[in-house]
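[User] I have long wanted to understand how a fold can be written as tokens. Those tokens are not coordinates but codes from a learned vocabulary of shapes. Could you go through the record with me and say what the backbone is doing? Thank you; the sequence and its tokens follow:
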Amino acid sequence: MHDPLAKPFKPIVDAVEAHLIGKRHAIELTLAAFLARGHLLLEDIPGVGKTTLAKSFARVLGLEFGRIQFTSDLLPSDILGISYYDTETGKFRLKKGPVFTPFLLADEINRAMPKTQSALLEAMEERQVTIDGVTYPLPEPFFVIATQNPHEEVGTFPLPLSQLDRFICSFGIGYPDETAERRVLTGEAKRHPFPEKPLMTKETMERLFQQAEEVRLNDAMLDYLQAIVAYTRRSGRFRTGLSTRGALALASMTRAWALLRGREYAIPDDLRAVAAETCIHRLRFLQGETTAERIRHELFSHIPLPA
């Protein structure tokens, strides 16, 4: 059982859960990814609430929401925008693409060609785009939730590991349990209006981003984190171990999870709460299926808790 949410975050999670019933852990992970200034990858079948999660979060946080539906004929310029000559002013002007949106849903990203995927992922990494030699900063904050279909579906272009590594965490929402689904079927979510005002100002966001970065990882916690990273590299259980970027992502998600619990320092439970979702798109078992539960068992049955 997780510690209760700290006071600033509970209303946000409650408001989103009113529209995505029974998926509180997924909502908390999304908020942690946001506070860690990362980006989120959702892989699941259609119709389980990926779009609802993204739209609800943007609405509750008061951030402008944009959506890109990825298709095989989508071009990088369709995402980034174009520079065009304005005959009235005699100057080149930028027609911004949808990437210039604080809260962006990149839907079915693995249906686009690799070049188009790379255009978005580079923008995510750099938080700026360059068009015709001119660099334009992206909004602050800038948060991307990308979705992808299961790889067995026809017409997908799987993201390479180097691109997957740019997402701070990944998970599937999954089916609701019977009780939650009954509440959905009775229309409960539709009876809950969104808050009239955003539940977090931009000033508060900036302060919380800073606080998340300042959450302390003491030497014992760093030893624990490094032991996990080393195990993924040396155990011979995985095709490749966690990269340094993956280790940084695990540290950032651990800090953000501790902040959600109202602490200025991280404890082993924080790392254990986020490790599987931070690692699942970065690790592949040499044998058998890679699942969050299997990663969780593999790591925590072999790495002892810090004293």
Remarks:
- The domain at 215-302 is CATH 1.10.8.80 (Helicase, Ruva Protein; domain 3).
- The first helix runs from residue 10 to 17.
- The beta strands are 40-43, 65-69, 81-86, 91-96, 103-107, 128-131, 134-137, 143-148, 169-171.
